[in-house]
Amino acid sequence: MRIDKIWGGDADARYGFGTFASMTVYGLAIAGVSVGVNYGWLKGWMLYVAALVPGLAIAAQLGFTLDFFRRADEFVRAVMAKRFIVAACLTFAVWSVWGFLETFGGAYHLPGWLAYATMWFFFGIASAFIRSSR
Length: 134
Known about the structure:
Layout: H1 3-7, H2 11-38, H3 44-71, H4 74-105, H5 114-129
Helix pairs in contact: 2-3, 3-4, 4-5
Transmembrane segments: 20-39, 45-69, 81-101, 113-130
Keywords: Membrane, Transmembrane, Transmembrane helix
């Protein structure tokens, strides 16, 4: 089987395959690190290296997203970019406010990796409302 049949030639197929692959690595890495920590298999430098893998999978998924933007037609690119920017801004605002609440108000600490999930949550909400490139 040729790689272009797996990878896909159009922007949607490349994005879908890339996101699926990177998020599969992400999920398996989190499971692996969790098991490794719970059973004491991962310690010291090995733990630090293993903990980088989920972050690298996130970076890969964001790379696939940016590649999708680049390959999409002008209308789709504009709408998706607008949604992405709104989601990122909302994420920055919410996490900044929460950080100040943690620092000054004693609020419960949230792990930083939740910022990625928060951004995609806001992207989903923005997608319901942002339908044009204007």
